[in-house]
Write a structure and sequence with these properties.
The structure is a homodimer.
Chain A: E1 11-17, E2 24-31, E3 37-41, H1 58-63, H2 70-75, H3 81-93, H4 102-111, E4 114-115, E5 130-131, E6 137-142, H5 151-163, E7 168-171, H6 179-189, E8 194-196, H7 198-205, H8 215-228, E9 232-235, H9 244-248, H10 257-269, H11 274-277, H12 279-289, E10 292-295, H13 310-329, E11 333-337, H14 346-356, E12 362-365, H15 377-391, E13 395-397, H16 410-431, H17 438-448, H18 452-458, H19 462-470, H20 493-503
Parallel strand pairs in A: 6-7, 6-13, 7-8, 8-9, 9-10, 10-11, 11-12, 12-13
Antiparallel strand pairs in A: 1-2, 2-3, 4-5
Helix pairs in contact in A: 3-4, 5-6, 5-16, 7-8, 8-12, 14-15, 15-16, 17-18, 18-19
Chain lengths: ~500, ~500
């Protein structure tokens, strides 16, 4: 029998119900050829093609008499439906229904060690959590710029990002006319939290002139975006004016777009960081809608030569103080991190963040462990990302092969996400999350038993794995041949393993 | 002016001469648009298209009255031309002409902490060293199997491997008719050391029947291959019979092809490992031609579930004892390592190897930090590889995207090598090798100064980086535009950096 041209694994959507029928946690159930099944988490949402998703959380939100943040609710010992949803999601992600309780989720949120991005006006989100004790999350950036990419392309990238497992998505669009409409379309179609960098739209509204950016303009942008439903804001409030001389001494001064705008405003206006000056008011807006603050690292190093300097660590210290203020005000927050850092300094970054930012969740961009591989920076950064996540980083911002060169194409989005799902999963395994090795072991058993199609079904990209394998298999060979093109039948070690197990009476 | 369709960086071959005119160490000199230059190591040899390379080392070898190994010579306080060549190669690799002296090379070889694979019958090799104190090396596997790939393809892969920086190449051909002729062609065309796994040809000569493998047959293969000029042999002499029950208890018993053949022979013949039994005789052959022994890990874990078990570590302990015997006999050796190992156990593997194998160089295959990404195992393995190399592993065997699925195509060879050059370089930087950050910093300066073409010239794959960038640049924009498609001109942080440096008087 000839092998098929395409491969369609038996993967079906199922839902696990919580204590209330409105809590329906989605999973994909993979059924293998030997009838074994495995649940894997999915972020694709109830309908990948819908322009507007159902507002899953609307009944939960409307029941709350006064709008409080998840952090405030957690502190009042209230277990929200979001927390219960997350406990189920995290527990079954790796097949252990006892691993995470809703009470444990509440405790981590109450301490500020974990964040549930959940704008009350983005009721379409399926709740997820960002915190060291939970599985490592991956963010995908999308967004148009004035030079390339359009509206439909970005919605296409959102869907592609969801298909490949982005736990949150940031819309980094800049310089386009319909930026509000694009964000609205993304929010309504997204079952995962959406983050933005509001200073981008602020600069656009100021006609591109940093001298014209005022607090009032920035406040209006934040308010508008919060009202639309953005779940977290990157705000570079820790980029204090006094840190700029340190950045000037670097090879690559400032590489953060938002940080660069903030620095421009300070230099043009001869003033302190306006987000820092008005931080209380920003927190008020965030508290009202339960927008989480992603305290941005405007001074993240853009070269390994610039890592761990006074600019970077001075900003981290300032951010740590802001994180405490967020906790006091009941606003959820997490901390953005580098960037470019050589491997020997990766752990130091996580450890210092824990210390200076009081164990608020860390959210890093890589870090890239070398600067010499443009075109392959999904790989240079995944090496750093896996390490820092193993050490405690809660969410990884993906880096695509296009980084430093161009806006990512859809194929780049896919490659970036698969690479970061590898990093996140490898870190989960290294952290020893309960049952996190279940899928690895299922795949290894399939390998040992020549269940080729099960290997593909269990892999991060089944169709791709199948294609690579099939390209070298003769058309007329068995449906599941007990060898492959790598060794041929004579040198196949897997065939020996059957005899080995028989010889020593191992089943 | 429109941007060009292709990109031709100014990269020229130069040679640095040693104390004798016969010592000519090759480098590529990259000249940047601002006239700065940078040397990078090259392994392409004097002629990429030659079927037979000049025998560079022939005069050095013929001058030695009795054929001793580099280890024996080092112990007698003799600095060979190979050692001096290596000192220059390692020093200028990262631009520091004082980093490594020939005497330091000699000392590391004398201690058995470094190996110079240099069969006296492979005089075409440009000497290189494998040792913890030196830059991390990368091996590329090529080789035909009975199911796919032919003669010309393999020579093509050798050239591709050299182009992308393979420091050594292993010919893993099995089950083809002209295996000796293919190896001969590879040896004569290769300026880098060639490794093999002689048990493969032995099985072929035994008609594929492990029961027919005898010591005499194995000895003949080893002798023939040593005489041809193979620089190192993977011999699975530490895979002792008493370890087999431990392997049988694994999910994926034995995944090493050579280990699997050795186990077959032991089981069929009810005998101890013949390479272990005849180790003294194997060392004699190796000593005669200065073949280095790559003591193979036939029990390397093929699943993260199987890592660090009694099979793996029991074999490592046995190998460590063999390494001591090699040192006593004056035979150079290094130690093969895993395989599949979750990130939390990677350091443990290197540390135990140092202890049990007396700091003989470690040569690992990855390790892969998760099993769930067939089709992307160049990435899963590069994560483990960078970590273990940072901890001390001297050479990394590349893994291509085809691993576990098919024989690598030429494109796979390229992808695997670039990925592993990233891992090796990132580890060099993390290890703090003198001047190892030079290329990173040059690229970062080019980034800061909008010298796009210099960024490409300095990158691991210039043409690829250029292509990605150019695909999104308008045809009518400037030759070196001071922005790119990622942020567009308005949001470009790099443009701000000029003002930032001016503001704070930084040049």
């Amino acid at each position: 029998m000839a092998t098929a041209k395409t491969f369609n694994p038996d993967i079906k959507r199922i839902y696990i119900e919580g204590s209330d029928p409105s809590i329906q946690v989605p999973f994909n159930k993979i059924t293998l050829t030997n009838k074994e099944t495995l649940l894997v988490s999915t972020v694709e949402g109830p309908d990948v093609n819908a322009k507007e998703l159902p507002k899953l959380r609307a009944p939960w939100i409307s029941k709350r008499v006064d709008h409080k943040t998840q952090l405030e609710l957690a502190r009042e010992n209230i277990i929200t439906p979001e927390m219960e949803f997350i406990a189920i999601r995290e527990s079954f992600k790796y097949g252990d229904d006892m691993a995470f309780s809703a009470e444990m989720v509440r405790q981590e949120v109450a301490k500020g060690h974990a964040v549930i991005p959940s704008n009350i006006n983005h009721a379409e989100t399926e709740p997820m959590i960002i915190g060291k004790k939970f599985s490592v999350k991956v963010n995908a950036n999308i967004g148009a710029s004035s030079v390339s990419s359009g509206f439909d392309e970005e919605i296409g990238k959102l869907r592609l990002a969801l298909k490949h497992g982005a736990d949150t998505v940031m819309d980094l669009s800049t310089g386009i006319d319909n930026i509000g409409a694009l964000r609205e379309a993304i929010l309504r179609a997204s079952p995962v939290p959406i983050g933005t960098v509001p200073i981008y739209e602020t600069l656009d509204r100021a006609g591109g002139d940093p001298a014209k950016i005022t607090w009032e303009l920035f406040r209006d942008v934040i308010t508008d975006q919060a009202r639309q439903g953005v779940d977290y804001f990157t705000i570079h409030a820790g980029l204090l004016r006094e840190l700029l001389p340190h950045a000037a001494r670097r090879i690559l001064g400032i590489v953060s777009r938002g940080g660069s705008v903030m620095a421009s405003v300070m230099m043009r206006q001869n003033a302190q960081n306006l987000a820092y000056e008005h931080f209380d008011e920003i927190m008020e807006i965030c508290a009202k809608y339960d927008v989480a603050l992603s305290l941005g690292d405007g001074l993240r190093p853009g070269a390994i030569a610039d890592a761990c300097d006074k600019a970077q660590y001075g900003e981290l210290e300032a951010i740590g103080k802001l994180a405490l203020r967020c906790r006091e005000r009941g606003v959820q927050c997490f901390i953005e991190g580098p960037g470019h850092v050589s491997l020997d300094k990766v752990y130091e970054n996580q450890d210092l963040e824990d210390e200076l930012c009081h164990e608020a969740p860390f959210y890093t961009l890589g870090p890239l462990v070398t600067d010499i591989a443009p075109g392959f920076d999904h790989i240079t950064s995944a090496i750093g990302a896996t390490n820092i996540a193993h050490r405690g980083t809660a969410m990884l911002c993906y880096v695509t092969p296009a980084e430093h060169l161009a806006l990512p194409t859809p194929e780049d989005v896919k490659q970036g996400l698969i690479t970061y799902k590898i990093a996140a999963h490898a870190a989960d395994v290294a952290k020893g999350l309960p049952m996190s090795r279940l899928r690895d072991d299922a795949l290894s058993r399939a390998r040992n038993e020549f269940r080729w199609y099960d290997q593909f079904a269990l892999s991060l990209d089944p169709q791709h794995a199948y294609s690579v394998w099939r390209a070298q298999m003769p058309d007329d060979c068995a449906h599941e041949p007990s060898f492959c093109s790598m060794c041929g039948p004579r040198f196949c070690p897997i065939r020996l393993n059957r005899r080995l197990k028989a010889e020593f009476n191992v089943k």
